[in-house]
Amino acid sequence: MNYFKFTPCEALRPFVECYYVWQSEEGELLSQFMVESPPNGFCSIVFNLGDPYSIQSQKYPSLQVPLHFLCGQNIHSYKLILNGRLSMAGIVFKPTGLASLLHLPVYEYTEERVDLRQIFAPQEIEATADLLRQQQSANERARLLEDFLLKHAVDPLPQPDAIDEAACQIVASNGLLHINDLIRNACMSRRNFERRFFKKVGLSPKYYARIRRMSYIGNLIAGKSKVDWASIFYTCEYYDQSHFSKDFIEFTGRTPQQYLQENRELAHFVKKPREEPLH
Questions:
Q1: What is the pLDDT of residue 272?
Q2: Is 168 left (phi over 0), alpha (psi -120 to 50) or beta?
Q3: What is the per-residue pLDDT for 136?
Q4: CATH number of the domain within which 197 lies
Q5: What global pTM score does this model have?
Q6: Is the dihedral of CA 19, 25, 26, 29 positive or negative?
Q7: In 92-224, which ranges are continuous DSSP H helix?
Q8: Which residues in the chain come in under a pLDDT of 50?
Q9: Are strands 274-277 and 2-7 parallel, antiparallel or unpaired?
Q10: Strand, coil or helix: 214
Q11: What is the spatial distance between Cα 36 and Cα 128, in angstroms, rounded to a whole number?
Q12: Range of the domain at 162
């Protein structure tokens, strides 16, 4: 499988993390192939250009996702169950991207995958999917995603406000920061800051920081067969191993070692992403 990442244009970078194209090799067909992802703190818009697939999560033991969908914040680990031909193209938003760029009620989409035809004109979604299928180049698919986003974004494009910047600071620090410092820098009352943060991100600042820390842990252990867990929980600023294990079980449903054993093989099947600028 190949996974490509592309950097958005400069005007969109405060709100868009990347565009991606994920596809199987020519002639490669998957059978009940399982990919697990811990919550990462990002929402996305996904166009599925291949065969249908399903997910398993704490909320949905088995759910066939819409062909083209918006994915809200995930607060628990989830699994993709892939069959047949894999071909996806998607937009990954920074934490406030959906709210700031598209004025969408992100707090309504937590743990959900919503059919894009319920949000945008169905004919346009189908037409965009057809255009994406016609492109053989991953770069051209990413370019079409950016065109789609620019067409639907508010005009003029917004400038990042205090909440946008605070949420991105949580991402940049991997959740390892003090929320009180963000509130102080934003020059807001705690109540106003938390209310505006929830409206734009869909989660409270403290909970969002916990998710970003768990995502960081997932990145630290990805593809490894052995992990120095003591080093991990100290690096991620846990008070002790018990606190670390409790958080890990809450977000993934398993102990750290169980999670590692069940996911160590994935790195052999997915080539390391390479991020490229659009051209």
A1: 56
A2: alpha
A3: 87
A4: 1.10.10.60
A5: 0.94
A6: negative
A7: 97-102, 122-134, 138-152, 162-172, 179-186, 190-201, 205-221
A8: 267-269
A9: parallel
A10: helix
A11: 28
A12: 1-279
Q: Which two tokens stand for residue 263?
A: 């996911």
Q: Would you state the pLDDT for residue 239?
A: 87
> Are 81 and 53 within 8 A, CB to CB?
yes
Structure-block tokens of residue 182: 């963000």
Longest dimension (CA), the chain: 57
259: DSSP letter: H
**Which pLDDT value is given to residue 277?**
78
Place of tokens 């599925």: 48
Nearest to 151 by CA among 127, 167, 173, 115: 127
CA distances to 204, 212, 217, 264 from 236, in Å: 20, 11, 8, 21
What's the structural domain count of the chain? Answer: 1
Collect all residues with Cβ–Cβ distance below 8 Å to 154 and sequence separation of at least 6.
101, 102, 103
Q: What is the pLDDT of residue 260?
A: 87
CB-CB contact of 7 with 18 (8 Å): yes
Residue 275's φ and ψ, nearest 5 degrees, are -95, 135
